[in-house]
Design goal:
Layout: E1 3-7, H1 11-22, E2 26-30, H2 34-53, H3 62-67, E3 69-72, H4 75-79, E4 84-87, H5 93-106, E5 112-115, H6 122-126, E6 135-140, E7 149-154, H7 160-172, E8 176-181, H8 188-204, H9 210-221, H10 227-234, H11 236-250, H12 259-266
Parallel strand pairs: 1-2, 1-4, 2-3, 4-5, 5-6, 7-8
Antiparallel strand pairs: 6-7
């Protein structure tokens, strides 16, 4: 697999495109918004400059990496030559199902279709296509160029061949692939999101303030970032969406989003990306 299409140019999509290009792959970065693509290119360039300062890459590599990334606002053109498509669009089930139905009809028969979803069923996504055995989850962590983990999620019909190819590909990117099965939240978010939700409840019930909660978890549990700050970086709307998937999938009230989280999302306080969440940015 040499030609990679990434659908969605937000934080995760731009990071995935950056990482593939850094490791020598040709990348088509696709988004319906030209402005979003321009912003993504600027972000990737800035992150490459940071890598140069940290001596992760040489300065001479910068332009080659950027040159491997082409941008498209037309999905059909962006996926027509892909060996692998990694979808990194918004965490919305209907958006993803519609997108996979579309790209399944537009890309070559051999193309593997991967989703970077945080929680939505790979089996359900695969059912929207005519190639369920070639659909898989490839859940990168943020920031993608830095974080080593990739959750490789097998849907009900995902073939061993597809799983093996994606696992090998993740290793080519310098990542550590971990194979998991297709249940709500997979592993990472099934464990992480209840912790974040409980931290929000701890604030909601007045047990302690934001900085106190985060400080306890950083100093007491050796977490590099407190759960409330982490929620801000993930996006409070994304946290709510994942919790809703967990709640719906398991039917357990412990996964229901805290009322404070729901109200903050309604108010547009989404975390770092909106400038205001539990902290001000």
């Amino acid at each position: 697999m040499q030609r990679i299409s990434v659908i969605g140019s937000g934080t995760m999509g731009s990071g995935i495109a950056h990482t593939f290009a850094q490791y020598g792959f040709d990348v088509a970065l696709v988004d319906i918004s030209a402005a979003a693509l321009t912003k993504a290119q600027a972000t990737i360039a800035s992150n490459l400059d940071r890598q140069i300062k940290k001596e992760i890459i040489a300065e001479t590599e910068r332009e080659d990496i950027l040159g491997r990334i082409s941008t498209y606002t037309d999905v059909d053109k962006g996926v027509r030559a892909a060996d692998l498509i990694v979808e990194a669009a918004t965490e919305n089930e209907q958006v993803k199902l519609s997108l996979f139905e579309q790209i399944d009809k537009r890309c070559p028969q051999h193309t593997i279709l991967a989703s970077n979803t945080s929680s939505i069923s790979i089996t359900k996504i695969a059912a929207a296509t005519q190639r369920p055995e070639q659909v898989i989850g490839m859940h990168f962590m943020n920031p993608v160029p830095v974080m080593k983990l990739v959750e490789v999620i097998k849907g009900y019909s995902t073939s061993n061949d597809t799983t093996n190819k994606v696992t090998a590909l993740a290793m080519q990117l310098g990542k550590v692939p971990v194979e998991v099965n297709d249940y709500p939240g997979f592993v990472a978010n099934r464990i992480l999101m209840p912790m974040i939700n409980e931290a929000i409840y701890t604030l909601y019930e007045g047990v302690a303030d934001v900085e106190a909660i985060d400080t306890v978890m950083k100093l007491g549990m050796a977490h590099p970032m407190g759960p409330l700050q982490l929620a801000d970086f993930i996006g409070l709307d994304v946290c709510q969406a994942i919790l809703q998937v967990l709640h719906g999938g398991f039917g357990n009230p412990k996964y229901a989003p805290c009322p404070l989280l729901v109200n903050m999302v309604i108010a547009g306080k989404l975390g770092k990306k909106s400038g205001q969440g539990f902290y001000t940015y």
